[in-house]
């Protein structure tokens, strides 16, 4: 096993060809009009973060199209909506701050990647800039953009993610409620676990995280 490990950049480059100049040139250091348009149409993004201790988290963030606000050419803001309060991403941000965002638009195979340095903000001007469905944010993650670029469509085309006829049959897959019940060790039925999940989703899906604004 150890003999097959590629443990250096030099060894990686023995296996992989050099990137094309186009792949290198597509990276920009700000949000131009094309990036702004893409973000304005994206209802979901995956936010990856790394803390100073090396802990890594990847969390989906979603809302109406354009829920992520572009503040200027170098900054964007993600309003924080109610989650599980583990604060995995938030802790990484305050302890490290390096993040990557992958924006997706249903039906579009290419994605937009944005890398940068993040902070957690309760600045009123920032919060006013990123409401969701008219609800003002209580907390926002602000990203100072370092790089932005369009990622190729190969992964999404291979997956067929936007093609219902290619979606897998999940009829025999244990439900998320069943998985949650077993992982936690709940002494209740899967049906009861599902009811609790549904009640939680109904009550909190469209609420903002953090204390209400005064």
- For the biggest β-sheet, the strand order reads 2-1-5-6-7-4-3
Compressed to H and E, one letter per element, the order equals HHHEEEEHEEHEHHH
The number of helical elements comes to 8
Mean of residue pLDDT? 95
Radius of gyration: 20 Å
What portion of residues is helical? Answer: 25-40%
Number of strands: 7
The amount of beta strand, in percent, is: 15-25%
Form type: globular
Which regions contain 5 or more consecutive residues with pLDDT less than 50?
none
Query: How can the largest sheet be summarized?
Result: 7 strands, antiparallel
Distance between the termini: 58 Å
Which key features would you list for this structure?
single chain, 214 residues, alpha+beta, seven-stranded antiparallel beta sheet, 7 strands
């Amino acid at each position: 096993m150890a003999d097959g490990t590629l443990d250096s950049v030099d060894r990686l480059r023995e296996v992989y060809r050099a990137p094309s100049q186009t792949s290198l040139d597509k990276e920009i250091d700000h949000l131009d009009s094309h990036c702004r348009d893409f973000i304005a149409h994206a209802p979901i993004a995956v936010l990856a973060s790394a803390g100073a201790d090396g802990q890594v988290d990847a969390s989906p963030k979603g809302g109406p199209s354009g829920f992520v606000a572009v503040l200027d050419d170098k900054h964007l803001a993600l309003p924080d909506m109610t989650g599980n309060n583990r604060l995995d991403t938030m802790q990484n941000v305050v302890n490290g701050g390096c993040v990557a965002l992958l924006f997706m638009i249903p039906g579009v195979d290419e994605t937009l990647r944005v890398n940068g340095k993040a902070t957690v903000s309760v600045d009123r001007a920032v919060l006013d800039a990123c409401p969701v469905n008219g609800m003002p944010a209580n907390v926002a993650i602000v990203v100072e953009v370092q790089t932005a670029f369009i990622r190729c469509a190969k992964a999404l085309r291979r997956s067929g993610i936007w093609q219902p006829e290619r979606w897998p049959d999940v009829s025999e897959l244990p439900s998320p409620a069943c998985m949650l019940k077993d992982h936690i060790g709940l002494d209740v039925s899967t049906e009861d676990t599902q009811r609790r999940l549904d009640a939680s989703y109904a009550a909190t899906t469209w609420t903002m995280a953090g204390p209400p604004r005064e």
